[in-house]
């Protein structure tokens, strides 16, 4: 077993995005592409000699290859131990928990989240720090700088590690411990929720379906929902992780979970439907006859969290990403707790959670989580919903309606234009940005613009500043349009338009969402000319 220093040449495109470095598998398969990136990560860190590194992924195509490379490079760079999930699997929230639980130095999460898998699909690598959360921009910027000049990487000349066998193995001076990916995570969930109440709920005949989308949450959901909580076998569907997600698109939204949505809208359907994405950090919540938007779900979970043992003392504060609707703000106001608006991406919640200033965080993109880990957590959201349903003994629809009647309703939708020509998308955003200062005071279609800016975040904990985080156009009546470019796409540019309108507690709560937001949809077209400039007649995805 010899330590090798291998010469390499830099790639120009290894800039981490909203959530790690996501690229087509074919890009990752280029010579030394993985090696360069992982070595660049380690070169940007200090003080890990002899320490523990957690490695796990969502099981997608190329996970098995990349994980072996990562283990060798970790050993050659002087880590003392690698903790890896059996079969190379760890959901993103479970990886976060394992890092925290075993006080690891950090972790490598191998995933492209909800992006399609397989040889033609996407792959990704993300570095998480010792608090279990995604590395902050200070580190990801340093990694990118390093990738531009890297000229060698360290590895060990050694056979592949057997990841199927639980237990420890030795590679060079480093110990590799293969752990069960579910056990620690399930134990954590048991400390947070009233499992007895949820068991009783299932015993009483309550039915649910959980779609694991052929991705990593299958083993977790089966062990917890069917195993520990006693839901009938078959409650978890598509529960076996597949490298190509069975050729599906593991994004839990109303497009890719349409069948489940349709089922929930029928009298024969189950009482509750939920799904999680490729790496297990996103969630979809559908009650009988009621889809719960992620923004509403965040507000509802925050308002009801005290019903779960892990949060019975109340929550310290709430944080949401800027494009997420302001539904949670109203809950925070009522509870008299802190509310924070951060840029898109979970990494911006880490400081607030570490400082104890917020307990629950969420994003409109189907991400919700709490201070139990430093990632969003799909199954956590599902279990908290189950806990609330079990205690309140009401259905999802009733709970949602009561919430609106108390706080008002934030109608909300997101329109995505995917794989748009990057030059066109950038020009569109730049043009609008250039006109922002002239917008306040203008009246379009009867609505007066109150403010228009490009969101800059000032982190109240470490004082750092993140500029250009998305264009916000706010109206006098409280409506809002946000426009930003995705930082996770792998082909061309994805333009996201977020639309929101508030109806007070005694207002209209039964409108169709797209109809309720039609005036704003028409205004943004007038302001930005999205359809005209991209040549698209309609968004690729509406959530
Ligand atoms: C998207 C979501 C964002 C989420 C990220 C990672 O990023 O919008 O909320 O944190 O995926 O799951 P985007 O593609 O918009 O940059
Ligand atoms: Zn994900």
Structure ligands: 1-O-phosphono-alpha-D-glucopyranose, zinc ion
Neighbour order of strands in the largest sheet? 2-6-5-3-4-9-8
Mean pLDDT reading: 95
Helix count, DSSP H or I runs of 4 or more residues: 18
Q: How much beta, percentage-wise?
A: 25-35%
First and last CA, distance: 52 Å
How many domains? The number is 3
By DSSP, the count of extended strands is 27
Computed over alpha carbons, the radius of gyration is: 23 Å
CATH architecture of the largest domain: 3-Layer(aba) Sandwich
Q: How would you classify the helix and strand content by structural class?
A: alpha/beta
Main sheet record:
7 strands, mixed
* CATH level-4 homologous superfamily of the largest domain: Alpha-D-Glucose-1,6-Bisphosphate, subunit A, domain 3
Q: Helix content range of the residues, please?
A: 25-40%
Named CATH topology of the largest domain: Alpha-D-Glucose-1,6-Bisphosphate, Chain A, domain 3
Query: What spatial form do the alpha-carbon principal axes imply?
Result: globular
How would you explain this protein's 3D organization?
The protein has 543 residues and is of the alpha/beta class. The protein has three domains: 2-181, Alpha-D-Glucose-1,6-Bisphosphate, subunit A, domain 3 (Alpha-D-Glucose-1,6-Bisphosphate, Chain A, domain 3, 3-Layer(aba) Sandwich), CATH 3.40.120.10; 185-407, Alpha-D-Glucose-1,6-Bisphosphate, subunit A, domain 3 (Alpha-D-Glucose-1,6-Bisphosphate, Chain A, domain 3); 409-542, 2-Layer Sandwich (TATA-Binding Protein). Helices cover 32% and strands 26% of the residues. The chain has 18 helices and 27 strands. It has a seven-stranded mixed sheet with strand order 2-6-5-3-4-9-8, with helices on both faces. Strands 20-21-24-25-26-19-27 form a seven-stranded antiparallel sheet. The longest helix is centred in the last third of the chain and has 15 residues, at 378-392. 52% of the residues are buried. The mean pLDDT is 95. The chain binds 1-O-phosphono-alpha-D-glucopyranose (G1P) and zinc ion (ZN). 1-O-phosphono-alpha-D-glucopyranose is lined by residues 18-19, 113, 321, 344-346, 363, 365, 367, 486-488, 496.
